[in-house]
Predict the structure.
Amino acid sequence: MLSSLRSIVQEVNSARDFNEVLSIIVKQVKAAMGTGICSVYLLDAAKTSYVLAATDGLLPDAVGKVRLKTGEGLVGLVASKAEPLNLEQAEKHPNFAYFPETGEEKFNSFLGAPIIHHRSVLGVLVLQQQERRKFDESEEAFLVTISAQLAGVIAHAEATGALARTTSPETATPFGETRFQGIASAPGVGIGTAVAVSSPADLYAVPRRMATDVESELAQFRDALEATKQDLRTVHKDLGDKLSADERALFDVYVRMLDDQSMAGEVIALINGGLCAQTAWSQVIIEHIRTFNRMENPYLRERATDVRDLGTRVLAYLQRVQQVTRDYPDNTILIGEELAAANLADVPLEKIIGMVSVSGSRTPIWPFWGGPWAFPPSWARWTCPGPNSTVAKWLWTAIRDRSSPTPPSPCCELTRHYSRRANPSPETWKY
C-alpha cells in the first residue's frame, strides 16, 4: 500500500492540469485496490450538489451529469456526515440511490471517504466492487489517506477556478478572472502588473509557452543537448578513476538517453507543434519520470531520479540561452512560490507595490521592505505564470487580514471599486 501511495502522489504532483489529476486518482486507486469502480464526486458550490467528476468503472457518459444533494444517496450521506462509509451490501442501505445512467447495478460493496480541506467537505472518493465484502481497515485507511492528499489539489483548483470549470462549466468564471483568498501581512490595496519569479531549472515550474520562432527553438534545444552531453563526457573523464564500473556506466547511459531519437523526437514534435523548447522538454521529461516511478522493479524505479537530474541539466542550458532581462514596470506585484530575500536582489524596490507568496512565513521579507504583503493559504500547488513573464493588470489586496467583499463585475467595475481603496483615508477601511 505504501508503494502504491507513493506512486500515486508522485503522479499527481507531475500532472499537467486538474482533470489529469482526477484521471490519475481514479485509475491508480482502482488498480491499487483491485476494485471494479473508483469515482470522484466533487462539490458544485453554485448548485449545492455533488457531481460525478471522474470515474474508472462507471459509464463515461455519466461524468458531469450525475448529481446528488448533500444527504442524498450514499455519496451525499458521506458528505453530510464527513466520515467514511463502508458497506458490504450497499443496495440494502436506506440511503442507497440507483442511477441507471452510471451502469452501477452489478456492484454491491461500497467504500466512500470524504475529501476534506480546512474542515469543509470538497467531495467524496468512492470505491465499489461487484463482490459482496466489507473493505478492511487497511483499505479504508488507504482511501482516507488518498482523500487527504487530493484535498489540497482540489482546494487549489477551487482557488484558480479549475474546480468550477469542471463541476459547472456553464456558470464558471472565465479564464483570467480569478479571486484568491489569502492572509495579509500588512494592510493595503494595489493594482499593477504581476511579475512571477521561480527557481531556475525547475521542471515542474516551467509554464506553458508557445514558440514565436520554431526554428530558433529547435536550434536552442539541440545546442542544449550537445552542451549537456559534453558536460557529462567531461565529468566522466575527470572522475573516471574515482568511480566504480557501474557509476561510469551511468554516464554512458545518460549520454545515450540524450542521443535517443525517441526522447528527442518527442520534444521536437512538440516544438514543431508550437510549444517553446523549455515547455516541450519539461513535459516529455516529466512523463518519462512518471513512467519510471510506476515501475515495479526497485532499481528501475530509482532511475526516475536520474531522468529528473538529466532533465534539469538540459533545462538549465535552455534557460541560460533564453534568459532575458526581466522588466519590472511601475506598480509591480511580485509573485512566487516562496519569496525570499534573494528574490529582491535585482528588483528595484521603489517599483514594487505588493508581493504574493504561495508559502513561507507570514512576514518573511516585509520587515526589510515595508510595503504590503500577502500569501494564499497552503495549497498543494499554485501555477504561477512562470519565470520571465508578466500578466497585465493584476489586482492585489490585503485588507485587515481579510479579503475585500467581491465587488460587482465586469472587470472595469472591479478595477474602479478597488481604485477607490488605493491610498485610502481611514474611513475607507470601514465596511
Notes: The chain has twelve helices and twelve strands.
